[in-house]
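---------- Forwarded message ----------

FYI, see the FlgD-like protein record below. Original note from H. follows.
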Amino acid sequence: MTMTRFGVAVRCGVPVLAGLALLPAPSASATTTSPVIRVVALGGGQVLTVEEDWLIGQDVPVRTARGEVRLLDADARDLSRGDETYDDVSVSGIYILTASGKDGFRVRAGAAGRPTRLLPAADDLEHIKQSGRYSLVGGAIYRTEQDGSVGRVSSTGTDDTDLFGEQAVWSDGRGRVWQQPLDGNDRLLVARDAAGPVAVWGRRVAWLGRDGRIRVRSGDERVRVVDAGPGTGRVGLSENVLWWTGDDGRLRVLNLADPRSVPRLTVLRPPYAVDSGFAAGTDTHGYLRVRALPFPRARPELLSSAQESSAARGKPWHGTLDFTKPVQRVRLFIHGQRVGQTVQGRGTVRVSWNGLRADGRPAAPDSCLHWRVEAFGTDGSGAAVDQEGSTSSGDSFLVTPVPRSGCAGAAQSRAQDLGRA
């Protein structure tokens, strides 16, 4: 069965294929007018398209551990806001970043979120990317806080910039590639032979060299050299996939998990997007196609997190975590005890704790409590990890009143009987 709405055609119940062949084109009885898809974006388990002046969202087919393909939601959603126009879109978790020659650059948290304007329209700013709660516009980087406010946190000064959560990578125009965490000053020189586009995902960094070949540096500092062919344009990384476009505009993908793999030319047509083991583009009829890449899946990775730094005694505490893909079986632990509630969707997870112990009494004041979260990919890829490879992501927060010195002065080892949720 083919579901068609807003020009989005997705075939339900089709097994994952070993290659990248197109699904059969919809018949004339299913639709009579081909859509005009100008932009495709993937992230947080959904695909976004710009069709005419509409911004449309659709849940991505998810591969299960048995290799099946299924739709989370068969109905396309209209995500357009008022008279906004859209020239480019990027999505990660619940965050949607848009670019428009009329409206400038805006970000919103959730389909119903209120857009916040980051910058006015500018002809010299071309590259945008949303990664967790971080928004990249050209070389300027912004962060959406837990209260919905947005602030600028850094700038690389160049459009040749990429972002993976709290990690920024850029080429400075002198052939040098730099990598730096947004919360620190430890800038790392990655390469000296870059010629433009760069990419980052997890512990991998990729760049186009002056010799026309793409180099991928992994976390162990090994560098893989890939013959990209003539006229390399966009370069990207996603999970175990290196992707790029050639002078013919076609999308190419490479399985980085296999050191003997060779580039594969897809049959998809632009516009393209690649994320979390999927590639999206259009077919010869102009319809959206989302294909599961026949490469090993990677576990979800933590992109960013935010939390309330303190909780009044007996009052609720809240935190938010953003992963590279949708997760399930999310559990919140405080001092090793499973507590609280979790709400998950599209890769963004909200956690909360009511501030009470198992016996219903408020947690003791003057305490510094450690929290952590465990989660698992909905696609059967395993336990989520942070950027250090740990399967538990967390931090500490204060139960007030506390000493002025905060957690450093509180009894961090003071475990409490919080009970189990």
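H. also flagged this: The chain is about 0% helix and 50% strand.
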